[in-house]
Amino acid sequence: MDAETITFLSSRKKITIPICEIVRISVFKKGTVIYTMSGNLASSKTIGEFERELLNEECFYRLSRAHILNLNYIDKYDDKTINLKNGTEIPMPVRAKTAAQSRIISWQFCNKPVNC
Questions:
Q1: How far apart are CA 37 and CA 43, in angstroms?
Q2: How many CB atoms lie within 10 A of CB 93?
Q3: Strands 39-43 and 60-62: what pairing?
Q4: Quick check: helix, strand or coil at residue 103?
Q5: Which domains does the chain have, with CATH numbers?
């Protein structure tokens, strides 16, 4: 994996996409779905495998067991939901709400979002 891209299998094809295009990664059955602004791709990789590959990417946050979010794509959030720029609404985790809100606030005020 190049520092700017991520590679995975989707429908038995090797796919490489720029990391900055990933909006979120969510658990689906035994694999994951990678959501981008231009579409969705299924992968047999687990969310844990993606998390390990994205460890050095500060803009990604493991929100819950089911979601990794690209903090650059958060539009707004409140105590119950996180709204992404692609229109997706993700439930705010009850147990991790404070940690999630702290991470989002820290990202929004300490980092400039990366534009591809």
A1: 17
A2: 16
A3: unpaired
A4: helix
A5: 5-110 (2.40.50.1020)
Q: Using one digit for the tens of pLDDT, what is the confidence trace for 40-64?
A: 999 999 999 999 999 888 899 999 9
Tokens matching residue 24: 């979120």
Q: Which residue has the tokens 């994996």?
A: 1
Cα 28 to Cα 22: distance, rounded to the nearest angstrom = 16
User: Is 43 exposed, middle or buried (CB count within 10 Å of its CB: 0-12, 13-18, 19+)?
Assistant: buried
Strand partners, 67: 26
DSSP H or E stretch at residue 67 = strand 67-70
Per the listing, tokens 């005020």 go with 109
This prediction has a pTM of 0.89
